[in-house]
Amino acid sequence: MKRLAIIFLTAAAAAPALADDVPFAEPFQKANAAPGGLADLMMMTQWRHIKTWYAIKRKNWDLLDYELGKLADTIERAAMLYQNIPVEFIEGAVKPLNAMRKAISEKNIAKVEIGFADLTAACNACHRAAQIGFVTIQTPTSLPFSDQKFLPPQQSVK
Ligand code: HEC
């Protein structure tokens, strides 16, 4: 929540300049921006969204906690670098991430899954606001990472 307060304070200072035709895609400080811009950060977010889902499916709590931390970091980075993103859409993604972390501590898989659905909805809400509603995120249907085991280490098969 402390982090969000910082975003609140700085958001007012950011002029809503637009890169290409995508709102929210202009970095606050160009020199510190992700190499390929916001879209590249989003690609990482997409991979981690998939990994998170399979960590849930395999009940790999440690991996799940790890991936959620990475997702939160990436979203926070996007918020810091692209400060014309309205804070409510960042909050929309941060809230389900926090809810999922709480559910992990309770080992409550049903609550984790609700959090994942809320997170996916938050991805799409921000995309619609950014006029890229055609980038529609859904619950993953297959796992593209054949070089990584998603079951906890003590269980042998994938
Ligand atoms: C706070 C706003 C916001 C949230 C939340 C958000 N996105 Fe994005 N996303 C964007 C914007 C803006 C772009 C367009 C960036 C550009 O084109 O420069 C984008 C683009 C993308 C792209 C297209 C990248 C490409 O090169 O094909 C993917 C995939 C993506 N987001 C996935 C996700 C996923 C998965 C989530 C949720 C876990 C998510 N996004 C949450 C704002 C958001």
UniProtKB/TrEMBL annotation:
Keywords: Signal. Residues 1-19 form the signal peptide. GO terms for biological process: electron transport chain. GO terms for molecular function: electron transfer activity; heme binding; iron ion binding. The keyword Signal applies. InterPro entries: Cyt_c/b562. This is Cytochrome C. It comes from Methylocapsa palsarum.
